[in-house]
Records
---
Amino acid sequence: MKKFIVIIISIILIITGCSKSEQININNGERPLVYVSFYPMYFLADEIGGDNIELRNVTPNGVDSHHYEPSMSQLKDIEKAQVFIYNGSGFESWVNKLLGNMINEDITINASDSVDLIMQDGRPDSHIWLNPSNMIKIGEKIKEKFISLDRENKEEYEENFEELSNKLKELDDRFITELEERKHNSIIVSHAAFAYMAQRYEIEQIPVTGISHEQEPTPGTIADIIELVEDENHKYIFLETLASPKTVEVIAKEANLKTLTLNPIEGLTKKEQENNEDYISIMEKNLENLKKALVE
Ligand SMILES: [Zn+2]
């Protein structure tokens, strides 16, 4: 019997011990430390968590998040996080070093788990955030995680999520209705970042390079694109904010095309930050430019 009681007591100690370390001590003014891998996840966590969380972004603004490698001191700091949100499907090559090693997988949200992935050349395309309805699904997971850590602020997390998902739904509706009557169905883009946007709004993306910015197009690809531009009477080619525009400019000159920006929102530039741009305002600009190329 004594032995039995000892076992029961130790089980109780283990259970209460665990829940204590997981729940945040709100009375001490402590806020959950949330780490995100790059800007689109930062946007979601910030909108939902607001002042109730302490939020840090691993990838600094203005750098190419495809190729960013966090420093050793950054990795050490991520170890302290109560939540770690990343894109997954291979976008952050450095995440594998952390998982199950420096951070417990229980605290992580892999955004790619919440959406239907599009395969490209036998591997998942990681640009999932460019479909606003995917952002709602990922946001839902983030909201649930925040509530599980910090029940005191449950209502606020729910309200913030509700507001955010309304904004994203509105954005999604605008893309659908404003691109409905169009003259063209395809767009020429610098890298193949827009499959999720293209699938959602039934646009065909013709990329000059592959999924990553680094791939150089072959002379054959450039010739094919110039031919297609002439066949389909395209007037525009899309540039990106964080990628080198050199190849696109060569094609634009050869095929007599005007350039427009289509922002893959892989990070904010310094200027976008200064102008208080966010995911929604940049997507609205993307829509305006898509309308120029497809509708007008
Ligand atoms: Zn990309």
---
Amino acid sequence: MRIVVDRSSVRSRLAGLVAANARADYVYSYPPRQSYRVFGESTAAAVPELVARSLRRFEDLNLYVHVPFCRQICRFCNLYAVAGANNDLDGYVDTVLEEAAGLARLTDRKTVTTLYIGGGTPSVLAAGQLERLIRFLLDRFSDRPDRLPPETALEVDPATVDLGKLRDLRAVGINRINLGYQSLVDGEVRGLGRRRPDSAGLALLEQALGVGFGNVCVDLIYGLAGQTDEGWEQSLLRVIALAPPTVCAYALTLRPFTGYSRLGYSAVDGATLYRRYEMANRLLQDAGYRQETHVRWVRDGGGYRQKANHWGLRNVLGVGAGARSYLWEADLRNGYSVRSRSATLRSYVDRVRSGDIAVTDGFLMTDDERRRKATALNLMALDRTWTRETLAFDPVERFAEEFAAFTESGLCETGPRHVTLTDKGVKYRDLLSQTLFSREVRTRVAEFNYDE
Ligand SMILES: C[S@@+](CC[C@H](N)C(=O)[O-])C[C@H]1O[C@@H](n2cnc3c(N)ncnc32)[C@H](O)[C@@H]1O
Ligand code: SF4
């Protein structure tokens, strides 16, 4: 992540950055992961108590499980994933359950509002293995273990499922799937470095829509190598024709040590990315979708409840190698690497098996950082009553310089109860969110070394 907005001169810099089509990475969590640091002994020792205190704060809980296994590592991907067909999936599920059992001892039962199984490619797990995960987690954490959370979600690589598997997923209680298509144009798909059989085309989406999931989400990326405006439009129109409840369109994030970077691909310019964002926004809204965030469009039944809860500062407790927890008192992470993928997995398993905490690094929150988090993440439509009640602050007063700059540039409108971004503001939302990063977070991001 490159910090592009210099805080000392928000007003003068912002107009220039917008005019120059400057890009900032998607701010999907705050603080960004580049500001996480490895915990020393005393912080690590304090993690269980910190988790317990955070969980005690709310009656509800969101659970996340990271399943890092993938059939291949896609060229654009910098998520924590391990390639190969020979991974011990049953053994991995056992380890995750062992980690979860330890965490469950720190808390009373909660109302589990979302359970999200992501990755990686969790759809490489058999339905039975997923069921074992779901049942165990509800059994340990939920005040109604017999009831599935309102959102029980699974990330799916379309190439790993067929109609039979989709039915099995529904039968074990998955009610939302995210289909990671990324593109529906053959040439572009080949450039992703993915093995995808023909069956993973649109027919699969049609089948998924017919199986009875409450919510089907299609993920697309713009800025891919070899992608043209025409190709981007084709992907969008093909998806829109089938009207899935949720469509996510992400601008490519390009990172060191990915396949793209090894191949020397440098991302397309800002003007092209903003143009593709506008194409997505126009086509989806014309087709009847409502814009939920700058990366997500929804129709009836659509949405992403765990993300909304995370941005609403509720606790998200993660288990698994590479999983992150977003808690009231801290962001925590169970290891991460795109350079030593298998070693990171082995070390996670060793930690859990030897009774150590799985957490390796993270960021301890303060009142100020929590206010920045609430503002930076919810900038599109910020509820001033909510911030007053939850965090005892008013964003327009606390971040007066930033909001004055947004308003002067026509990026934001301030009402007595809400602050909302204008259409232009939504387009530049990540730039605006970056202006709210603290000095500490900026310093950490600037010092972050991708080589480590
Ligand atoms: C957490 S990832 C899901 C990974 C899952 N294995 C898949 O491929 O579907 C959610 C989505 O983020 C998007 N994504 C992943 N890497 C990205 C990158 N480097 N730039 C932009 N979007 C990315 C993809 O659309 C992906 O489906
Ligand atoms: S994009 Fe998804 S399938 Fe591809 S390597 Fe990343 S996590 Fe795995």
